[in-house]
Amino acid sequence: MKKLFVVCALAGLIVLAGCTSISPGTATSNPVGSKVGESSVNYLFGIIPLSNPADMSIQKAARNGGITKISVVDVKYGWYCFWVTKTTIVNGE
pLDDT for 26-40, tens place per residue? Predict the structure, then answer.
């Protein structure tokens, strides 16, 4: 029974393990602001969207952060066992 618990615990850690990376998107001549907005989409196996891919737009991220003047746009990728999360991050005023 103890071995089964250890095997299940290790399998759970492998499934939940993941990594993230942030890649630069775009920068404008506007000064970097204090507001940050994000919008995300999850993909099953990295290719099947689980929601509308338009939910990851720069416009939606800016709206979520109350930003009217965009200064920097980045994209964050989170890889997990069966899914990928793509997040658009917008900074500005």
Answer: 888 888 889 999 999
The pTM score is: 0.76
| Inter-CA distances, 71 with 23, 27, 47, 56, 90, Å | 15, 6, 29, 17, 8
For residues 43 and 47, what is the distance between their CA atoms, to the nearest angstrom?
6
Encode pLDDT of 34-63 as tens digits.
Answer: 999 999 999 998 889 998 888 889 999 999
Residue 39's closest CA among 49, 18, 54, 17?
A: 54
Measure the CA–CA gap between 57 and 90, rounded to whole angstroms.
Answer: 10
DSSP 33: -
Alpha helices (H) in the chain, listed in sequence order: 2-16, 58-65
